Amino acid sequence: MIRPSQPLSERIRGELMEMDRIVQRALRSWPKAQKGLRGQEAYIDSVALNLQAFYAGIERLFELIARQVDHTLPMGETWHRDLLKQMGKEIPGIRPAVIDNESIFDLDDFRRFRHLVQNIYTFNLVPEKMMNLIQKIPELWARLRAELFAFSEFLDVLHLSGRKNKRK
Question: Domain range spanning residue 106?
Answer without folding.
Answer: 6-167
